[in-house]
Specification:
This protein is α+β, with helices and mostly antiparallel strands. It has helices spanning about 10-15, 20-30, 50-55, 80-85, 95-105, 110-115, 115-135, 140-145, 145-155, 160-175, 185-205, 215-220, 230-260, 260-270, 275-285, 315-320, 355-370; strands at about 35, 45, 65, 135, 290-295, 300, 305, 310-315, 375-380, 385, 395, 395-400. The protein has one domain: Orthogonal Bundle (Cytochrome p450), CATH 1.10.630.10.
């Protein structure tokens, strides 16, 4: 298989500089189902159209998350793949529906809305401390401080363990960057330590249930079954990564985008009721995840291309979120954009379980930031994560001028 185009989306150095929107747009226009060679695997199909990503996402019978997981690289160790398949994001029906049914009981709108006072208190504490220091790394001292505290409070994690989990979550998912994960064992060690904390937490809550998400998850029943400790451990691992890293990334990327568009930032300063729509537009404009994978379970034809059974299909969300057939003037950042059918939370049965929580956290974080800060002055160019998976920022030095 070959294509006349020669686009390479894999080098981390490209994404460390900026999202390659021109290359993604070229694929979307000229080869939306593009066979992409890879030096460390058999190659994959790069999917860049909004409609195609939706179609693949809602068809687990033909495009599986379970078969080989959602990461580009193949897991060669059977035990590693078996463990990965216990994570809800790497399941297909019917197992996916059963586990999601158990977990979703803790993510109802009522349950999430009830968290707002606690989230606001955490955000207020973080922004007051940051404003007092004036010159801060926005990533670590505000954006990263909130989601991990929220998750820890939800799950009943002790404060000392929460600080440690914040460190390990980066090593678990940002391991393409040698600054984050300097050795080959960094990710594995972080995974072992995180699972150990999860098991200790589960045993404590089984023996003496408290008023937290861990206890409710372990007690919940769906279709006559409960979570096993192993399933809880893998979900905890997933939640620590997904709930912390992606929200931190969305918050930081959103602020960078707003600073790059001062008229839009001024608009939400003047009218905070625009913040929910600003959250959606920053998610579209700066999706936290670059891609997820599916594996073809049979031969499939898509836009005239023959996808063979066993082929990898990578869905590129930054490309879909700027699809001209869906979004008017897609490269324009517009906090009043409506409708806004972005795919930053995925689509179909794997639509992000924590989307409501992420939206709430982002709204509260922006509200408290604007309430306490009159001006945000960049002090240095933000340092991007070296990763073709996570659209992250490692450091963002700013001065926060208080009101």
């Amino acid at each position: 298989m070959s294509d006349q185009l020669h686009v390479d989306l894999l080098p981390q150095s490209i994404w460390e500089e900026a999202v390659p929107y021109e290359a993604l747009a070229q694929l979307r226009r000229e080869a939306p189902v593009y066979w992409h060679e890879e030096p460390d695997g058999p190659g994959f199909w790069a999917i860049t159209r909004h409609a195609d990503i939706k179609q693949i996402s809602k068809d687990p019978g033909r495009f599986s998350s379970h078969e080989a997981g959602v990461s580009r690289l193949d897991l060669t160790e059977p035990m590693e793949l078996a463990a990965y398949r216990q994570v809800v994001i790497a399941m297909d029906p019917p197992e996916h529906g059963q586990l999601r049914g158990l977990i979703s009981k803790a993510f109802t709108p009522r349950a999430i809305n009830g968290l707002e006072p606690a989230i606001r208190e955490i955000a207020q504490k973080a922004i007051r401390a940051a404003v007092e220091r004036r010159e801060v790394d926005f990533v670590q001292e505000y954006a990263a401080a909130i989601p991990m505290h929220v998750i820890s409070e939800m799950m009943g994690v002790p404060e000392d363990k929460s600080l440690r989990l914040a460190e390990m979550s980066s090593a678990l998912i940002d391991d393409q960057d040698p600054e984050i994960a300097p050795t080959a064992d960094s990710r594995q060690n972080a995974q072992i330590e995180t699972l150990t904390i999860a098991m200790e937490l589960a045993q404590r809550e089984l023996a003496d249930p408290g008023d937290n998400l861990t206890a409710r998850l372990l007690q919940a029943e769906f279709e006559g079954r409960r979570l096993t400790e192993g399933e809880f451990g893998m979900f905890f691992l997933f939640l620590i990564v997904a709930g912390n890293e992606t929200t931190r990334t969305a918050m930081t990327g959103g602020l960078i985008t707003l600073l790059d568009h001062p008229d839009q930032l001024a608009a939400i300063h003047n009218d905070p009721s625009l913040i929910p729509r600003a959250v959606e537009e920053t998610l579209r404009y700066w999706p936290p995840i670059h891609h997820f994978r599916r594996t073809a379970m049979c031969d499939v034809e898509l836009r005239g291309r023959q996808i063979r059974k066993g082929d990898k299909a990578l869905m590129w969300y930054p490309a879909a979120n700027r699809d001209e057939s869906v979004f008017d003037d897609p490269d324009r950042f517009d906090i009043r954009r409506t409708p806004n059918d972005h795919l930053s939370f995925g689509f179909g049965e794997h639509f992000c379980l924590g989307a409501s929580l992420a939206r709430l956290e982002l709204r509260v974080m922006y509200e408290e930031l604007l309430r306490h800060v009159s001006e945000i002055v960049p002090l240095a160019k933000p340092r991007r994560l070296r990763s073709n998976l996570i659209n992250g920022i490692k450091e963002m030095r700013v001065e926060l001028r208080p009101k």
